[in-house]
């Protein structure tokens, strides 16, 4: 794992959250993107070498909608940048961790992603990500 790539924050209203975080950061978001397969719209803010990713559900069945319904808005996941996602998946499986995605899938911001089961990581949803 090279660095924290981003922290994902689940929000109900992406436009309102963009305004809030633009004020907090003192800068506008640099990118928005919809990931249809996940039912989510995203917005990214750069913070040094890392990013903040705001996530809003595009439909009531999406994982983000379910997260907000159960837990409310807030930190959804922490993503770590890796050079070789497949090698990291195998390494972590070898260490006994469960992965929600044993095969990387396309994610936002031109990344391949895989998630670790939060029950194995002290209740935190951990995302591995690599440039496509």
SSE inventory with pairings:
Elements: E1 3-10, H1 14-25, E2 31-35, E3 40-47, E4 50-57, H2 63-71, E5 74-81, H3 85-94, E6 105-107, E7 111-116, E8 126-131
Parallel strand pairs: 1-4, 5-8
Antiparallel strand pairs: 1-5, 2-3, 3-4, 6-7, 7-8
Pfam families: Glyoxalase_4
Domain VOC: 3-131
Keywords: Lyase, Metal-binding
Protein architecture, described:
This protein is an alpha+beta fold and 132 residues long. It has a single domain, classed as 2,3-Dihydroxybiphenyl 1,2-Dioxygenase, domain 1 (Roll). Helices cover 23% and strands 39% of the residues. The chain is built from three helices and eight strands; from the N terminus they run βαβββαβαβββ. It has an eight-stranded mixed beta sheet with strand order 2-3-4-1-5-8-7-6. It starts with a strand and ends with a strand. 29% of the residues are buried. The model has no long low-confidence stretch (mean pLDDT 96).
């Amino acid at each position: 794992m090279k660095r924290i790539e981003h922290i994902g924050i689940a929000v109900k209203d992406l436009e309102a959250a963009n305004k809030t975080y633009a004020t907090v950061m003192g800068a506008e978001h640099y990118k928005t993107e919809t990931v249809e397969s996940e039912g989510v719209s995203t917005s990214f803010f750069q913070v040094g070498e890392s990013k903040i990713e705001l996530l809003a559900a595009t439909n009531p069945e999406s994982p983000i909608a379910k997260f907000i319904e159960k837990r409310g808005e807030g930190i959804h996941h922490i993503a770590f940048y890796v050079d070789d996602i497949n090698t990291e998946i195998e390494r972590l499986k070898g260490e006994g961790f469960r992965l929600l995605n044993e095969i990387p899938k396309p994610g936002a911001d031109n990344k391949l992603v895989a998630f670790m089961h939060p029950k194995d990581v002290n209740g935190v949803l951990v995302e591995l990500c690599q440039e496509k």
